[in-house]
Amino acid sequence: MTTLEDNARALARRLIDRHDGARLMAGIAGPPGSGKSTLADQVVEEINRERPGLAAVFPMDGFHFDDAVLTAMGRLAHKGAIDTFDVHGLRHILQRLKSNEDEVVAVPVFDRAIEIARAGGRLIGRETGIIVCEGNYLLMREKPWDRLKPIFDLTVMVEVEVEELRRRLRVRWEGYGLDEAAIRHKLDGNDLPNGLAILAGSAEADLTIRN
């Protein structure tokens, strides 16, 4: 069976071989709990082991609407659904990174421990040749999300069986100390419906990884 480490090494090799000096943008999408964040981190680690400083991770989660905004929208209980992200802000930063005209770009990073996106949580410099963006909805076909896929030079979809997703997500929320009622809401009221929508509604990726 191909492991996550094998997939990371293979994807890193593909990106290094494709990099010709111009900035390369890769997008890794998948349902919550699919392992896309871990894959993205390991791909960048593999690239930087061979070519120090060449790659950086750019997480989509930094574009969560703030809890105060979601409360006003009546959507706090569904945080993580496709309408709870600033898709236009994400698109503009992706385009800014793609053009690579600025000396450095500050990107927001989501802090899951406090459920808040920290503005300027990560700096990506002009010398960074490969950006690996990871997020649930990067390949969605619905408007305006469909404007993201053309920005990427390589796209990856991470797929996982639904029952395995359920198991992983339960472990995640148990780790944050949620009670059973809250876990059931997270799973059946939010994460799994979002995951199924991602699998059904995403455009075909250049590469599919079954994790």
Structure report:
- The protein is α/β, with parallel strands linked by helices.
- The protein has helices at residues 4-18, 36-50, 67-73, 87-99, 162-175, 180-201; strands at 24-29, 55-59, 104-111, 116-125, 130-135, 154-159, 207-210.
- Helix 1 packs across helix 2 (36-50) and helix 5 packs across helix 6.
- It starts with a helix and ends with a strand.
- The relative contact order is 0.21.
Side-by-side strand order of the widest sheet: 2-5-1-6-7
- Sequence stretches where pLDDT stays below 50 over 5 or more residues: none
Largest beta-sheet details: 5 strands, parallel
How large is the count of helical segments? Answer: 6
Class per helix and strand makeup: alpha/beta
* Average predicted confidence as pLDDT: 92
Q: What is the overall shape?
A: globular
SS strand fraction: 15-25%
Oligomer: single chain
Our measurement of the CA-to-CA distance between the termini, rounded to an integer number of angstroms, reads: 10 Å
* Helix share, percent: 40-55%
Cα-atom radius of gyration: 17 Å
Order of helices and strands: HEHEHHEEEEHHE
Strand element count: 7
